[in-house]
Amino acid sequence: MYRHFNYNEIKPQGWLKRQLEIQAQGLSGNLDKIWPDVRDSAWIGGEREGWERVPYWLDGFIPLGCLLDDKDMQARADKYIDAILERQKPDGWICPCADDARAEYDVWAVFLIGKVLALYCEFTHGMRHTRAFDGLRRAMKCLYEEMKSGKITLFRWGKFRWFECMIPLSYLYDREPEEWIRDLAQLLKEQGEDYNAHTEAWKRPLNKWTFETHAVNLCMMLKYEAVTAKLLGTPDTGRAEELWKLLETYNGTAVGTFTGDECLSGIANNRGTELCSVAELMYTCEILYELTGKRIWAERLEKAAFNALPATISDDMWSHQYDQMVNQIACMKFPGKTFFRTNGAGAHLFGLEPHFGCCTANFNQAYPKLALNTFLRTARGIHVALLLPATLTTKINGVGVSVSVETDYPFRFSARLTVKTDAPVRFPLKLRIPAFAKNVTVNGLPHAGRGTLSIDKLWAGEETIELCFTDTPHTVNRPFGLKTVEYGPLVFSLPIETEYRMHEYERNGVERKFPYCDYELIPHSEWRYGFASDDFEVVERQGDEIPFSSKQPRLVLKAKLSRVDWDYAEGYTTVADKTPRSRTALSAPVDAELYPYGCAKLRMTEMPMVKQKK
Fold it and tell me: pTM of the entire structure?
C-alpha cells in the first residue's frame, strides 16, 4: 500500500526532536559506555552477552544518531557494525558462537541482526552500504544453507519469532530477487510456530510462563501474515485484526496495549505490561499500516506511542520500568511474593535493568522508528501518515520537494504544512486526519472529507496548509464498570504525588549509579477516588522542555472527583485492588487535575463514576 522514504530524507522537528535529544542524552545514547552487555559484548569481541542485546540496542541507536545528525553517535554505530562484520565467518555465519555450537544457538539473534543490517543499509551509502549489504546477504544465505541441510532447526525464540526474519529477507529480495530467499522464507514458515493453534490459551491468564502467551511474542506476531505474503505468495486475509480483537478482549488495557508481565495477564488494571511489548507493538502497527494502508493501525500506533511509551520511561530517559500498570499507585519492591504473574518483585521500579535487560536495549527503537514513519511514499506522491513535527526533503519526478509539518499534536489539535518545490511539479499530497477529529477545517474552511485530506495538484514555489480540528473530553467504558477519560489520542489519569527514592548498588558486575541508578516511587497523596462528573475542562499550558513532563504537562483536564472506599489488592499494601469496594461517594466533589497518562508515573486511570449520597 505504502513504501517508506529514504530514511535520510526525514528529520524530526519541534517536540519530537526534543524527545529524541533527551533519548540520546539518556540511556540510549550511553549504553555502549556504561552497560557491560553492550560495552563488552561478545558481538564486538568481549566476554559479555552475545545474543539479542547489542542488536536490540543498535536497532534504535542507529536511527537515533542519524535522525539527529549526531556524528559521534553515527561513528559509534559504525564501530559496532564494523566489529560485527569483521567477525563474520567465511561461510557467512555472523553471530558470536563457536562453529560447533551453532545448532544450540537460538537464531532469533540472526533474525535480529539481519533487521539491524537492513536498517543500517538504509542510512549508509558507498562502501559502507556495500559492505553491510553483502554481510546481510551472506548471513541470510548461511542461515538458508544451515537450515536446508538440517544442521540448524528453529527452537525457542527463533521458532516463535520466525516471521521477524521476513523483514531482512524482504529487504534483500526487493533488491536482489534470488530464489533461495523465498526458499528460506518457506523453511522458516514450516518450522515456525502457528499462533492460531494457541488462541484459546489467551483467554484465561495463568501464573505460568509460556512462549505462546508471551506478550512480546504476540505483539510481534500480529504482523506475521502481512510480512510473509510477498515472499510466500500467500494472501493477507486480515487475520491481524481478528487476532488483535481477541487479545484486546481478554488482555487489553486502557492505553491500547496488552497486559503481559511477561505472559498475558488478563484485563485487570493493576496487571503489568512489559516495555518491550510496547516498543514491538508500535513497530508492528507501523509495518501493518505501511503494508495494508488500514487507518486503524495508525490510530493504534498513536495510542501506544503517546500514552504507554512515555509512561514507563523517566523524564530524562535514564531509567525505565520493565512493567507498567494502568492503575499504578506505587513502584516499590514487593517485600514478599511478587504481584506479577511471571516477573520479579522489582519489575515495576524505574532503573537501568529493573528485570531482564531486554527492555534496557529494546525500548530504544520506539521513538526513532515512530519519527521515521511520519511520512510514507505513495505510488505518485507523499502521505503524511502521522501528525508529528518533522520535515521530508525528497524528489518527486526529479524535482526537489520538501514538506514540513509544524504541530504540537497530540497536545494541540492543529498543524501547519508547508510544501516547497524547486520547480513546478504535480503530485498528490495525502494527510491522515485522526479518527476522533471533529469540526475539521483546512485553511479556515470546513473539510468534509472523512479522515483524509487529499490534494492532487501542480505544486509551485511555497504553499501553506492550515489544519485545525477539535475533540471533547469524554469517558470511555472499561471492564468491571470502570471508566477512563480520553481527549484526542490521549488517555488521562489522576497523578499521585511522588517521592523518588534512589538506590545505587552493584549486582553481577553491573553498576547502578546516578544517573543510571534504580528508583522506587513512593506515593504521597490520596488515590482512592472516583469521577463525580463527566464534565471536564481542557487547560493548555506552556509546559517545560520535556514533552511528556511529569512536573509541567502541556495539557491537563480539570475534573470533579469524590473519595470512595477502595482497598489494596489482597496481600499487598502498594497495589490498588482492581475495583473499589463501593461506588458511593465518601466526600463531596473536589477539584482535581488529570494529567496525560504518559506524564503521570504514579496514577489512577480507571475509576468508577461515583454515586453521591442522598
Answer: 0.98
Identify the helix (H) or strand (E) that includes residue 173. Answer: helix 166-175
Among 363, 366, 342, 337, residue whose Cα is nearest residue 351: 363
User: DSSP 3-state helix, strand, coil percentages of the chain (rounded to 5)?
Assistant: 40, 25, 40
CB atoms within 10 A of CB 196: 12
Cα separation, 597 vs 536, whole angstroms = 16
The predicted model gives 479-504 an average pLDDT of: 98
Three-class DSSP category at 89: coil
Distances (CA, A) of 491 to 432, 468, 556, 598: 21, 21, 11, 8
CB 308 within 8 A of CB 257: yes
Report d(CA 174, CA 143) in Å as an integer: 19
519: left (phi over 0), alpha (psi -120 to 50) or beta: beta
Residue pLDDT, tens place only, 136-173: 999 999 999 999 999 999 999 999 999 999 999 999 99
Dihedral of CA 243/241/389/538: which sign? negative
The answer to whether 195 and 224 have CB atoms below 8 angstroms apart is yes
- Per-residue three-class SS string for 585-599: CCCCCEEEEEEEHHH
Three-state SS sequence of 406-438 = EECCCCCCEEEEEEEECCCEEEEEEEECCCCCE
Given phi > 0 = left and psi -120 to 50 = alpha, else beta, which region is 488? left
Give me the amino acid identity at 149. S
Rounded to an integer, the average pLDDT of 311-327 is: 98
Q: Angle at Cα 589 formed by Cα 583 and Cα 590, nearest 5°?
A: 125
